[in-house]
């Protein structure tokens, strides 16, 4: 989940904060202090997160495009100038553009808005934006809700009392509401000082930037892992089951399946599974990822040399061309697989399926999958030359069952032509002729289109009169018989009009003497 | 998302009164003259469908699309109304398919134009529709049972699509009032029943249809709330294709569908089999498959749908598929499709192609010329899905490689001995099992000879893992431990061990090897340093290296031979594959130069060994080579390895 930090650099942010007996701070210093803390946290515990920094007043500017280089972000914090008034709407429009350009509309992003709660004056102020909200057209749509899945965290360099003395808090709450309730407002508890700012940012970190740790298990083998990005809670059906589902911290592998069988399944999200080394106290030593820090380096080298189940699993899945099915919760599964980023690098990844007993129709119910040895016969064949997947649906889809649709005249004409073409090749095409004839008959009966049956009967009779002298005598008999049967079906009432009744070829025998019956 | 929204239950109420037997007055030519027909034949007069036929085939088309895209949890109940209501199916999943409905409709047949119009009314059907909406579906039942005390969360909503020929606007209002009242009554009944559910929300879609050329007596009216439970909308539509188009629009609205046109599909011409032209096929699917377009406002890629229907279609370009592509795509959604024009030749060509198991990637036409693959069409067991592939930048790009993380530097994970390891633990073995184990062992011997790295790739490893021969030594030791642990199970287990021991170095040689080995190791250490840089890079360059070898091979052959000519000289690891070009008979070392001949004979021997009992000599051999005249060696101290060389000189 990439993060956009949106920092208010309007003049009001330079308002001094009175702190007894120490040097004078401005609100922007408090903000920078809080953000430094956030960046430091991310640099150590959340280092794969992409973060961008936007500053705004009446204009906005992208100071640092999405990066994992927290030094650059930190530097930018100390190079911010002061500008004019606050104009939140245009900044939020800017955030929309930046995120969509970089990540498209499907990747969830977190927007951290840092402001002092002074929302501007006149045109472009948040009050003005909200007042005109209902009069918007499609072209100047208010940027919230963001056109991508999002969380909007508003970090106020002000305490609750200050915000409540004006309508600022109400306006900010409106913003969260407009973002479909996705987000939260943070205010400073008590007097404005570095310590209280720290505790406010600490709450944000706890809420949104704590790494997700889990234990990956397969039989007796286990590994401590970090799952990145954090899997977000998922709501299956807001009405029946409104409580968001959260994935287990024990990730149990329940089976393995060929990549060809799982066949590019749709997933809710995907995550890196990074093995982590824990020391005896259970504290994280590191993910083993190389870092500049030398102490960490040696720790990493030690960690690198201790066998880890993740590496074994990754290698095995890669060599075998398989994925591991992992249990994420009750009736919730995901898959683990080897994902190559480039020729050199590959990784263990986990994708989450939609919760439910049957997330992939072509695998059937997850609960009914089992080991090959449980099957009476190896479903993959003795020579591994077949597969029980994909499962066939009980009913065929329309495109797989030759349905009849006559909405366009061309549909009807094609079906009639098919009959005619085969009629001219009787008796060789007797089987196809009757197959097509019966298909047309069934559809005409279902649609109550009896005129068609009569029409086609007339047409077959005419064909009979047009038969060339060289035609096989059987052709004439079959055409007459078919025409008669169609007419019977069209008149209704008799057994010949039954939907399930099929017109069968007239039994003729031209091999011997003329013994055919009619 | 709500499972039990209005689209969970759809009731079709189709008018079966005498006036529905009237012609829609839209002619269909069915007797098309074909070329090379006899001249002077007058084609048969065109026919026209009745209002009933138009209504039925349009509603069947609605159901076809719905069943294709939502085969489960979206249910239809079909009711025909004349002097009474005929309910053609139930909410059960078994009743939800076109064949069932078609058969039931055939049984009803077309309306009887001579029936007494006074006895017939659409009202019977509407009342039955409300009644049926109160009936619980198996999905609702299941959800209620599962939720126990929260059962009230399971909603009961539905939609009634009524196709009739109304007399006037006030007639329409009368129908609405009737539905309103019936809902009120039935909700009271349902309140006191365990197997009925009260209707929370009902959407009434009244479609007034009339013959082409007539004036409509009923006016259109957008959706309006008649009560908290009932909304109603009125559509006044000419019969024939106009009615079909209307229902097509409605099915898209009701089920949140969107349209994608696949363009540039190459297809053989019917008339000229050796030419191919490009075709377009329009597909319907859930609109979430367009989520990336909708949100990013990428409207420039959309065009208008061919039929001029209300919705836009998004055009995606066919990319000719690579064959047999087993790849795990990052797919953010998969949605069932339904072709708009299911029986047209382009549609059926596309769907048959997919049903045969091929997948097609789809590309967004971009003005800039950059190629963006955003979707994939693929069938899974007779169902075609439109997969949405992630085409934006990945937030997981440039991740740390697994080899850089915990356990990444350990290179001796056992992955290849798997068949043996899983078999040897069995209590009894079959002949086949023994062969399998032997095969595994031979494979390992073969790999060691070729100095292949043991799998679990050291790919991307920065630091040095254990030296390769060290890896093999550890592997052999572990394998021996594993097999020894099971030899008491049976004689066959014993045979596996024998095979393993035969393949490992023999004790008489051990001493000798150690002597030589020590010397060699010293030297290897030095040469190892010299090639250290290379060593670090080489693991992922293996394939590149092999290619290079073939080219460089000849030039370096001479040099390689010099090295080999001295049995004591070390084999620099980077040079080893070179000697695969060599024709020297194998020298008797567990690792070292391997010739084509030895590779070949090893292969043949491995194959043959499965067919007969092993000779005692071979069983005791080292690398399938028995030492003859051992006494001579003892006498004059000549090394066996020189036999090989002597023959070449």
What does this structure look like?
The complex is a heterodimer of chains A (518) and B (649). With 518 residues, chain A is α/β, with parallel strands linked by helices. Chain A has three domains: 1-207, Rossmann fold (3-Layer(aba) Sandwich), CATH 3.40.50; 212-235 and 243-280 and 294-372, Ku70, Chain: A, Domain 2 (Beta Barrel), CATH 2.40.290; 407-495. Chain A contains 14 helices and 17 strands. Chain A has helices at 27-45, 70-78, 88-103, 126-131, 160-165, 168-178, 194-208, 259-262, 294-305, 309-320, 409-423, 430-446, 450-465, 473-491, and strands spanning 3-8, 16-17, 25-26, 51-56, 60-67, 109-115, 150-159, 183-188, 212-218, 221-228, 250-258, 269-275, 277-278, 284-286, 322-329, 332-340, 346-352. In chain A, the strands form four sheets. Chain A has a seven-stranded mixed beta barrel. Chain A has a six-stranded mixed sheet with strand order 5-4-1-6-7-8, sandwiched between helices. Chain A starts with a strand and ends in a 27-residue tail after the last helix. Chain B contains 19 helices and 18 strands. The model of chain B is unreliable at 296-310, 456-463, 506-511, 517-591 and 639-649 (pLDDT under 50). By secondary structure, chain B is of the alpha/beta class. In chain B, 35% of the residues are buried. In chain B, the strands form three sheets. In chain B, strands 10, 11, 12, 13, 14, 15, 16, 17 and 18 form a nine-stranded mixed sheet that branches. Among the domains of chain B are: 9-29 and 45-255, von Willebrand factor, type A domain (Rossmann fold, 3-Layer(aba) Sandwich); 259-301 and 311-389, no CATH class; 417-455 and 469-506, no CATH class. The radius of gyration of chain B is 39 Å and the shape is elongated. Chains A and B meet through helix 3, helix 8, strand 12, helix 9 and helix 10 of A and strand 3, helix 1, helix 2, helix 7 and strand 14 of B.
